[in-house]
Amino acid sequence: MENQQYHILLYYCYAGIEDPAAYREEHHLFCIENNIRGRIIISSEGLNGTVSGLKEDCVKYMDYIKSDPRFADTEFKIDTHHSHAFAKINVRAKEEIVHSGLRHLNPREKTGKHLEPHEFKAMKDQDDVVVLDVRSNYEHELGHFKNAVRLDIENFRDFPGKIKELEHLKNKKVLTYCTGGIKCEKASAYLLEQGFQDVYQLHGGIIKYGMEAGGEDFEGKCYVFDNRLAIEVNQVNPKVISKCYICGTHCDRMVNCANPECNEHIPICESCGWEYEGACSVQCKGHPKKRPYNGTGYYQKNTNGYNPYKGFYQKPNKEKIKSSFYDKADS
User: Fold this and answer.
1) How far, rounded to the nearest angstrom, does the alpha carbon of residue 93 sit from its chain's CA centroid?
2) How many CA atoms lie within 13 A of 138 on its CB side?
3) What's the pLDDT at 301?
4) CA nearest 161: which of 169, 171, 151?
5) Which of helix, strand or coil describes residue 281?
6) Annotation says 280 is catalytic
7) Domain extent at residue 217
């Protein structure tokens, strides 16, 4: 099945869900029966997901979501791939669809003005504009917009604590951006709540900007939360900005440390990759649990014993699920 066309979907939708646990079960079953794999978060405030599947299965999945009036305006960023980008399906019910600690903010009611990629491109270099990256360190260190303000945060939930560092920008037009747009919904809303007057967000994030505006002035690669780890964005004036974690040479080749107890996602050049056998340090290279290195720096998660219908309140048709999930596409 290697020549089959797969799609990778990135999406989110802020919409009220009265019973997230029940909808999680329904949603999970649909994914299993249609061989959709990935990570999906469901909460009372909406949906957030990155999934992969054969093109026809992804079309069914998008139709399934949009057929629900609550999610009819969901926008999907669609990329192509040679295989599944995930090993399994994981659908979880959580308090927020992106962990921010800002549950009191509803982007349906208040958020920054959405800019389409061409609008963002036209505004980003104006004198009264500041471009603000609201992603985590490991993301913007791999790639970011030229001249963007980047915050020292390990997780998005740390964003509110950094607002004081941005006080001097209150009289500027603030253009926020992230990978797919979801973090900006809450980040821009919080900036407005804190007294920033003119706040915008890149609609569809870096991914949509690369697809529709050529990715101009996005330097480096974009970190993504699937098996690819990083993707090219800029087809106009690309530039490598990240450096090999080991030797310091310019490198945007993302790998997972071969030591599973470290498992850091970091740039490591090909030469150091082979020298350190996929590890990020001498200590990790010598770790007794170090995984064999094959030159890619990607390690398929062990799915032995994976039970896709574990935890359901009602038992689904296991034979139907097994034939669909395991036999329909690549194994």
Assistant:
1) 18
2) 16
3) 58
4) 151
5) coil
6) no
7) 113-222
